[in-house]
Amino acid sequence: xxxxxxxxxxxxxxxxxxxxxxxxxxxxxxxxxxxxxxxxxxxxxxxxxxxxxxxxxxxxxxxxxxxxxxxxxxxxxxxxxxxxxxxxxxxxxxxxxxxxxxxxxxxxxxxxxxxxxxxxxxxxxxxxxxxxxxxxxxxxxxxxxxxxxxxxxxxxxxxxxxxxxxxxxxxxxxxxxxxxxxxxxxxxxxxxxxxxxxxxxxxxxxxxxxxxxxxxxxxxxxxxxxxxxxxxxxxxxxxxxxxxxxxxxxxxxxxxxxxxxxxxxxxxxxxxxxxxxxxxxxxxxxxxxxxxxxxxxxxxxxxxxxxxxxxxxxxxxxxxxxxxxxxxxxxxxxx
Amino acid sequence: xxxxxxxxxxxxxxxxxxxxxxxxxxxxxxxxxxxxxxxxxxxxxxxxxxxxxxxxxxxxxxxxxxxxxxxxxxxxxxxxxxxxxxxxxxxxxxxxxxxxxxxxxxxxxxxxxxxxxxxxxxxxxxxxxxxxxxxxxxxxxxxxxxxxxxxxxxxxxxxxxxxxxxxxxxxxxxxxxxxxxxxxxxxxxxxxxxxxxxxxxxxxxxxxxxxxxxxxxxxxxxxxxxxxxxxxxxxxxxxxxxxxxxxxxxxxxxxxxxxxxxxxxxxxxxxxxxxxxxxxxxxxxxxxxxxxxxxxxxxxxxxxxxxxxxxxxxxxxxxxxxxxxxxxxxxxxxx
Lengths: 335, 335
Prior knowledge:
2 copies of one chain form a homodimer. The first copy, chain A, has helices at residues 37-40, 87-90, 103-106, 119-122, 135-141, 144-154, 170-181, 194-203, 213-223, 239-248, 268-274, 285-297, 316-324, and strands at 23-32, 55-62, 74-77, 80-81, 101-102, 113-116, 123-125, 162-166, 186-190, 207-209, 229-234, 249-257, 265-267, 277-280, 309-312, 331-334.
């Protein structure tokens, strides 16, 4: 991305092994993330930045110290590099690894190949070569599914719980799927977009709320005996959506937030008197990858349906436009 | 409190039973809270407000529906009224009870007697009439100990954990005590006040950090192998202290915050990239009262040492001055 709104597909040198813990992955598919729209729209700085942080593909080369992967393995990677051995990783927070590095920006996986540092700690091999029909779902695990899943875990979605999901983008939809898999009793999707409402219902939403902001909060309270939801997931990242999520959470309830906050200022006093648990940030996708890959492999979940536009990598610019204009929820780029 | 800085002890009508779930308590002791200084200093509005929300005493009269208490019982109450039967109470968040009401302001326990609504859900009787020496500790359970305990539980203090406590007021000191009781391995008290440092060490602090703000954060990181503390307790409520607490928490760690926030604006993006759990707000003291009363009764903890000035109720105004000028950590008022 040369500048906001200016996406170009260009030839670049092939990546090479630099550190002995690196792997080179030949990508099978990649995609465009909702968070890629922040720089596209000029909200985040961008200047000739390598884009893309979601990826699946085949290991083409490994460094001398890579132990768990071999050339030819099909792998899914997290959007944050992690060693998966440090104290923070062992506690399940690989996105805060002492060696954490964002794939977006410096690596960039909207590409044919990528050099992945700390390959053992970042990549997970699938049980075998996947059927082509599984590729979109495995690709979703790399970020949107992993992030939605983390949000649902952070919000402590589970049996007997009412879960409200703020945001009907790909991550919000994946959070609906995750809440259902985690056994939530009732899942309220907050969306005013007919096609996304439909997809939310497909993934397990039991209720749809179209209202936003304070009206949205009032509607959630109405549906929960005046108390608010046990579990609320924030998957947008604006001031309105964040405070809507805080307001929709019952006292003592759990808010999981994964929408990348931009210019959000949380009034401390409001959060204080809400009396809620919160957990958020870049999702430690690596924690969940083995489980998510297995669920996909066994055809128990179908996150790949979140992709509603497929284009060749060369047409990435059109993919960005389609997402920016909300003509597409999520764009898969083929190679 | 007629106005900021203007505290007067005046005769008022005796309280009477209004609802059948009420009890009238004749107070044995009361005290002044750090949070009483907010209106005293004009940070919170105050206009002829009934002050005080910490109390112990003897039940003098009960309404027809009070079941668990009888006249003559010695009781400790929470600073928030709760029915202790609603869904929120049963989940342990009595301070967000559907019948929650703050004792401060409308009831006011810097007084000889108080009408306590929802007596069954708010008051806990001690195993018998306490020795006078136990009264300060039982009074501490009503708020500062209960609040510090909640903060330590919210921060998930426990075996193997390093806990940092931001704030050396009574609540911060009680959080140190709680962290020790919960089995924390290392407890870092952030304080630059020699007498409070000493008290922090008495209650279980293993380390003292005098630096504040970003320097304080850097010092905590230095002491924790660059990672930050597992558990951080915020017991002040200013912008600097809150962000110091966020910064001192390791990725995936837990922040428990109980300092009443005033004019704190939390930058969403900073909280997001911190990747931490948070839980805070007015403490559900009622949840912990039975356990805390027993620990005090059995002489296992000595929270009463947090009172370093005792005055008769008539001299409440002098008590406020002493706390405002930091000549006293916490003032007990006798009756």
